[in-house]
Write a structure and sequence with these properties.
mainly alpha
């Protein structure tokens, strides 16, 4: 896992937050070769989502959220 500080895709949901300099969390899981072959394709279907990946991403989200305070976001 790594943090992609400058990973702002203009077609992605988080981009308006970036443009308006608002804090956001952007989670994306990529293959080991850093490719996302089905991204924005008809082949990008829910059956390809691993329950383990979803579970670990949700766990990570709540760990990060728990470490933030309201004051740290201002």
């Amino acid at each position: 896992m790594y943090f992609a500080k400058d990973y702002y895709l203009s077609e992605s949901d988080q981009y308006p937050f970036h443009v308006h300099e608002k804090p956001f969390l952007f989670f994306i899981r990529v293959e080991k070769d850093e490719e996302i072959p089905d991204l924005h394709q008809k082949t990008d279907t829910v059956d390809k989502i691993s329950k383990d990946v979803v579970s670990s991403t949700i766990d990570m989200f709540f760990k990060i959220l728990g470490s933030l305070s309201y004051d740290s976001l201002n």
